[in-house]
Amino acid sequence: MWFKQLKLAGREVLPIVQGGMGVGVSAHRLAGAVARENALGTIASVDLRHHHPDLLEATHRCRDHAQIDAANLTALDREIQSAKAVAQGRGLIAVNVMKAVREHPALVRQACESGADAIVMGAGLPLDLPEMTADHPKVALIPILSDARGVSIVLKKWLKKGRRADAIVIEHPAHAGGHLGAARIDDLRDARFDFARVLEECRALFAELGLGRDAPQLILAGGIDSHAKVRHWLEAGADAVQLGTAFAVSAEGDAHANFKHTLASADPAELVEFISVAGLPARAVATPWLNNYLRREASLQAHAKADVRRCTQRMDCLSQCGLRDGISRIGQFCIDLKLAAAVRGEVDKGLFFRGASRLPFGQAIRPVRELIAYLLHGTFPADLPQPV
Hints:
alpha/beta
């Protein structure tokens, strides 16, 4: 075997990580299928009600966000149990929790109590994650960061609390999909995010902190779309690689077939970069809704005003929301509504996050097993045209 196993939560698994994608894009079917192949599958914790008709019905037209929050915690517990059942004791199940989500502490606690093997947190610096998981010391903690400066801030803060990161996802904003780890769109391609540079600077930081064998494992994410790139970065010092879009369009992906087709058929050169309602740069497919929104964005921002009634779902999902809070410099739409429409396959209404790279199997929808075999061994499905 040419690669080393990824060591997390007392287990050894393949150095392939499936990224967390909400709302409901990576739920139990996808995460469980990835874990069943002895890799790391990830459930995105945001608003998982959409995979549970009884919970949707119970919260239909609900105006009490506490009731909606409770339903989502129930949904998260169900998804973790179902993912573990699919995995059949193999691999690892992680839960991705966005720091920007208002109820992130409750989601972290539920994930730990429900038996998640790891918590992955991005969309903000997860400085208080050790406190949230203090009662669950065996759960692996994995922050998502983009440069060595962010890694330094988080590690030093955690070490003062007596906790180290088990691994770190280094996500390149120029290539990843969804919310991106840069302050501005103009910063997405800054040289400080280059993988080779971040690997070198992180190793130097680990030496400075005297971490030795306790140093976090480094997982590279963004733009890794072939066996050749996987091999290059694992041999260059990464401990694993993470992919999102390629898993989202797999046969076991939890989203609607229209969702998968929309991502698989999109031209990477024509993706759209914009500022989300969470105040973060984001990357998505140029669908009819998104194109229409961007044409109207300046007018919507000019009329922004703080009004709780603008929270169309009455769930106050984000700690900071451009639409609800009247923040005129950022997005002015309901992100939960648009992501939920996407996972249902409503192409004209949804927001379809996507990474900027080509997909390993082009527009073909293939099983998770084939994707992992290709990434690690270069084994390409015999019935597909060979990549050029």
